[in-house]
Amino acid sequence: MGRSSRQISLPFIKIDRRARRPLYEQLYEGIRAAILNGVLRPNDRLPATRLIAEETGVSRNIVVIAFEQLVMEGYVQSRSGSGSFVAAEIPARMEKAVRDKRGSDKKEIPRDPSRRLSGHFVQTLEHVVSPRNTVREESLPFQTGQPAFDVFPFAVWSKLAARVYRYLDFQHLGYEDAAGHYPLREVIADHLRVNRGVQCDADRILIVSGTQQALVLCAQLLLAPGDRYWMDDPGYVNARAVFTLFGGEPCPVPVTSEGMDIDFAIRHYPDARLAFITPSHQNPVGGTLPLAQRLRLLAWARDHRLWLIEDDYDSELRYRGKPIPSLQGLDTHGNVIYIGTFSKVLFPALRVAYMVLPDQEIFQAFKSLKALNDRQTALTDQLILTDFIKEGYFHRHLRKMRGIYNSRLQCLLNELDTHLSDFLSFTDPSAGMHLAAHFRQPVDEARLLQLAADKGLVLPSLREYTFGSYDRPGVLLGYAGFPEEKIRKAVRALAVCFRQIS
Amino acid sequence: MGRSSRQISLPFIKIDRRARRPLYEQLYEGIRAAILNGVLRPNDRLPATRLIAEETGVSRNIVVIAFEQLVMEGYVQSRSGSGSFVAAEIPARMEKAVRDKRGSDKKEIPRDPSRRLSGHFVQTLEHVVSPRNTVREESLPFQTGQPAFDVFPFAVWSKLAARVYRYLDFQHLGYEDAAGHYPLREVIADHLRVNRGVQCDADRILIVSGTQQALVLCAQLLLAPGDRYWMDDPGYVNARAVFTLFGGEPCPVPVTSEGMDIDFAIRHYPDARLAFITPSHQNPVGGTLPLAQRLRLLAWARDHRLWLIEDDYDSELRYRGKPIPSLQGLDTHGNVIYIGTFSKVLFPALRVAYMVLPDQEIFQAFKSLKALNDRQTALTDQLILTDFIKEGYFHRHLRKMRGIYNSRLQCLLNELDTHLSDFLSFTDPSAGMHLAAHFRQPVDEARLLQLAADKGLVLPSLREYTFGSYDRPGVLLGYAGFPEEKIRKAVRALAVCFRQIS
What's the topology of domain B396-501? Predict the structure, then answer.
């Protein structure tokens, strides 16, 4: 008998159920690699899909998908009635690609040592911390900025996506208005007027690819190099990174239990041109700016030509009390640029945020710059989102999230009271997706974070949000993304860490 | 009998089948508007869906979808057995939203007249032309940059999208690596090595939100304010806009039938720090840079620390001759930044392009800056695209497009030969999606464009691409997006225009 009778099994295929790559792809890659490196040879008969499914523990459908791919690419031949075989000849082109790949793997073009990046942004880039997108196999407490993916309405979102793709026509494949899909701007305007007290209409709303891009546009249009800007300390790191990148000089403003200390800022930095502020819910320690402070800030802005960037990043997530209307809604002189996002209430990978600009002239300047930055935000996500809001799913989802997050917050507060009140001081934030806790006594923070990490806990330190003096050390405890059972276990594990270091 | 017996029909509902809004939405809006403005009154009985379908000429399913929406939002009540009625009470909140909308429509916050945009980019913004995204109801010949939407594989794309959304899990909802989805970077690396002779691996590929963003990152990292850069004249307007925005000084380089005149550039602007170049297919007039010129350019770049930005925007669309390997593939000193995009070969609304950086240090700097600009490119489109390439659809689509575009190009060339050879000179471009034609004798260009517009023709002028002297006037004739019959009619109509002005 020839080669085709070789009895083979596939012990070399490693399936990792926790890996990010789909199972069919792992299987496909495993078999393909085996063919290319000679473990499987031309004309070898492959085991039946059923057997492979048993051997690797994946469903037979998955095996079939992997096989179809291998057949399509010419690695495997299916001979009717007698099963699947490694192809007698592997496609020459593929072999070449593989050879090239081997040859070029990690190989870099030798670089002229005198060659340096010379752009204007190179020097400043060294001084800013780029946003670190947390990429993890699983979400770990007490990671922040992590919505409750476990209750996200996948089914609805997929259904709307399918409809959008089914009715996609040539108009939606071409370039759109750089300001974004108009119907989306209309539903956002409705939402903001009713729920956030924002003064707006669709014509002044600019769709952007996330809050980060909104901040870039603000920096480009509102900040000249050397301009000073007010920045909460601790405050939103990514905002500071952007404003610094574009040449702004940050002025650290302390944070009280009511948010940014406006009086301090006015006293110390009267010449600032811009203020970055999160009045609904100070980022990261919480606190809501009271009406009197808002009016004082607006009056100062009016009289001193101060731009106010209101980042209303998670204002939809308020669990008690009336939602606080936006700062923008109180503005009578067009000094507020309002930014909102869907990353927090839906999911971060959805790169859709929006800005409300005070008038058409400013809107047009922002729109031109948006076009220069990336022409437009990806369209299909905008179409899906429009339907998601229009058909009522968005508000339903918000209501549901509020209920779930509030329960998770209460659970966290109870557990903290029971297990960590000796070590941490905290107050009920009534809003948002995380809680800020300060250490009651000095701790070896590096050691604490390491101990926590060993127990599978992510403990974002307030140090990372601070750029002036780190005089109120503490940590953030994200709760929104974690079921209550997980929160309970995590708090108890954290309590063990604290006892170990004290 | 009460109000509910009022016999109503819906003559006020206007359905426009050519409008961009879905039919169900038009119907929904029509009925909602009628309720809000009092044409339909509380408790009015609505006609049966079947009757509305007949009256408006849309399918009954569409009517049902519109009704479901109205019921969900509380405008319509469905009473089992007796049909649908206008709600006795319209939801107060909705009414309020509508009132607010009426009140605030177009209203802007009064602006302090002394208030000016003060950012660094405001002055330069006045000197650059922002990309104009052409938004049209239908595509008109001879618009450029318009792929053949009529043969785009919607069904496949939708199927892949549905699968991506079905298997979306929490890992794909969170933040990803700022450099992009790794499996996509892998398939792009394979594609570029095999088809474009690019030296690369996935670790040096950065996914960006369109070529525009790639250019922004280049400007930010490679160009200091005041730096001179080589720019084809005529050349790609959006590249010039970005480099100018970030303070670069453009040096116009004439274009020969073989692309950028490298010798001219070296002679006239030896101190330039950066060159924007489209060597595979000069944008917009065509022409391919010969090997000798490529080597001369690379040697100059190596010896004079010149960055080369290679925009390989439509190199996959070559109809005759061997595809020309990229400039980057010949580079031995890491002076080339390679940019490619899916906008041209798939569709512009897909905001996915990629850069190949020469080494890890430069890659990391670009990645940090990408994160600062918008954290990451929208993920779901990346997932769909990965499958589209991996499963062979991309290459199949490319093959198909090449055949179709070549036929359309031949048709255009034949028609031009027959009808316009007295007026226009042109050569077979052998590649791309449009053809550049120069006027044989001076024409009143403004009048020509107006006459063409009157006949429903879009005639992009070379003037728009020119920034030095406009000494070889002409127009671009996009053909990729138009069936041959449309091309034939358009050429004949254009011939009439030429005869009218000569």
Answer: Aspartate Aminotransferase, domain 1 (3.90.1150)
